Amino acid sequence: MSSEHSLTLADYGWDEQRDNDFAEHAAQGLVPGRVVRAERGQCDVVTAAGLIRATVPPDSTGDQHVLCTGDWAALQPPTAQSAATITAILDRRSAVTRARVSGTSVGQLLAANVDIVAIVVSLADPLKQSRIERLLALAWESGGMPLVILTKADQCPDAHQKATEVADIAPGVNVLVTSATTGEGIDDVRAAITGTVVLLGRSGAGKSSLGNCLLGSDLLAINTVRDTDGKGRHTTAWRELVPLPGGGVLLDTPGLRGVGLHDVDDGLDQTFAEITDLAEHCRFTDCAHQTEPGCAVLAAIEDGDLPRRRLDSYHRLQRENAHAAARTDARLRAEAKRSAKEMGRLRKSINRSHPRKM
Ligand SMILES: Nc1nc2c(ncn2[C@@H]2O[C@H](COP(=O)(O)OP(=O)(O)OP(=O)(O)O)[C@@H](O)[C@H]2O)c(=O)[nH]1
Ligand SMILES: [Zn+2]
């Protein structure tokens, strides 16, 4: 009996509101589960009966359901004849999305239903403010609450000075100083975590080390999990979603190389909240804070109240975001051209292979 079986769905973040919302699915004999790892067409899901593997059929338009770690789903439970099947994805309360590295117009979902988006930054490396701002925009946009966790404090003589610098570019965001080596700040992180937390940061930032600290001795439970699909098979599954001993759930993403922005207008406004506030006092409501007369943002720079770098960074990220939006528009136009005939053919073939309404 592994410790896996003493866990309940509540340990994975299931709550009363979800339970209420699920009533209509439950009436159809479906069960809830949370995706701990998603692949194309298949995923590992934690249900009240343990971890199972489920298939993910195409949705009613023929597109693959885009499932992601952290999603809650309604499942048709497995039978002697067939594997479990995902029939619906429950409404996401939040979603972390980035532009795809390939530069296509569709965003890539990194994590779903996260309450805290923790940006992990190593103090052993020089601070890259714009990188933090970029991740903050992504975090704000997700609908989760951003948090900055500075790691490797033991490698940095002026860790708290650095924390102040980071706090200056992260209005409204809690900034914590930690070390996985000395244990500094780990309790602060525990105290700051509610619900599901995702760690975002570049490779080597110290995410795994931090995760290990938070997990304590339960870490080994990550890799060995019993497959309970009723067929008695035992498999080893790599999971990206793990309950923390003191409460909360850790969502582990693979190290991020490039993080392109995708549709983050609001996220940028929250990241640069002091600029957004100043902008309300510009003479023109559509002021771009470039050369306009009566610009309150430029006046603040002039007065030394706002660093020039902050505005430059804001403009740069806005431009990048606008480019991503233009790509999306181009894709939507191209999709609209797809012939009705093609769509009809697609639908027929789906109805044949999946007679049940999704
Ligand atoms: N001195 C010191 N080193 C640390 C600390 N945390 C992590 N490291 C080291 O930094 C390196 C990278 O740490 P990881 O935890 O693997 O980083 P990561 O962000 O998970 O990296 P990816 O898995 O590649 O995304 C390892 O050599 C760790 O031992 C710390 O608090 N202090
Ligand atoms: Zn202005």
TrEMBL record:
<comment type="subunit">
    <text>Monomer. Associates with 30S ribosomal subunit, binds 16S rRNA.</text>
</comment>
<comment type="function">
    <text>One of several proteins that assist in the late maturation steps of the functional core of the 30S ribosomal subunit. Helps release RbfA from mature subunits. May play a role in the assembly of ribosomal proteins into the subunit. Circularly permuted GTPase that catalyzes slow GTP hydrolysis, GTPase activity is stimulated by the 30S ribosomal subunit.</text>
</comment>
<keyword id="KW-0690">Ribosome biogenesis</keyword>
<feature type="region of interest" description="Disordered">
    <location>
        <begin position="319"/>
        <end position="358"/>
    </location>
</feature>
<keyword id="KW-0342">GTP-binding</keyword>
<dbReference type="InterPro" id="IPR010914">
    <property type="entry name" value="RsgA_GTPase_dom"/>
</dbReference>
<feature type="compositionally biased region" description="Basic residues">
    <location>
        <begin position="346"/>
        <end position="358"/>
    </location>
</feature>
<feature type="binding site">
    <location>
        <begin position="201"/>
        <end position="209"/>
    </location>
    <ligand>
        <name>GTP</name>
    </ligand>
</feature>
<keyword id="KW-0699">rRNA-binding</keyword>
<dbReference type="InterPro" id="IPR004881">
    <property type="entry name" value="Ribosome_biogen_GTPase_RsgA"/>
</dbReference>
<keyword id="KW-0479">Metal-binding</keyword>
<comment type="similarity">
    <text>Belongs to the TRAFAC class YlqF/YawG GTPase family. RsgA subfamily.</text>
</comment>
<feature type="binding site">
    <location>
        <position position="282"/>
    </location>
    <ligand>
        <name>Zn(2+)</name>
    </ligand>
</feature>
<feature type="domain" description="EngC GTPase">
    <location>
        <begin position="112"/>
        <end position="257"/>
    </location>
</feature>
<keyword id="KW-0694">RNA-binding</keyword>
<feature type="binding site">
    <location>
        <position position="295"/>
    </location>
    <ligand>
        <name>Zn(2+)</name>
    </ligand>
</feature>
<feature type="binding site">
    <location>
        <position position="287"/>
    </location>
    <ligand>
        <name>Zn(2+)</name>
    </ligand>
</feature>
<dbReference type="Pfam" id="PF03193">
    <property type="entry name" value="RsgA_GTPase"/>
</dbReference>
<feature type="domain" description="CP-type G">
    <location>
        <begin position="106"/>
        <end position="259"/>
    </location>
</feature>
<keyword id="KW-0862">Zinc</keyword>
<feature type="compositionally biased region" description="Basic and acidic residues">
    <location>
        <begin position="319"/>
        <end position="345"/>
    </location>
</feature>
<feature type="binding site">
    <location>
        <position position="289"/>
    </location>
    <ligand>
        <name>Zn(2+)</name>
    </ligand>
</feature>
<keyword id="KW-0547">Nucleotide-binding</keyword>
<protein>
    <recommendedName>
        <fullName>Small ribosomal subunit biogenesis GTPase RsgA</fullName>
        <ecNumber>3.6.1.-</ecNumber>
    </recommendedName>
</protein>
<feature type="binding site">
    <location>
        <begin position="151"/>
        <end position="154"/>
    </location>
    <ligand>
        <name>GTP</name>
    </ligand>
</feature>
<dbReference type="InterPro" id="IPR027417">
    <property type="entry name" value="P-loop_NTPase"/>
</dbReference>
<keyword id="KW-0378">Hydrolase</keyword>
<dbReference type="InterPro" id="IPR030378">
    <property type="entry name" value="G_CP_dom"/>
</dbReference>
<keyword id="KW-0963">Cytoplasm</keyword>
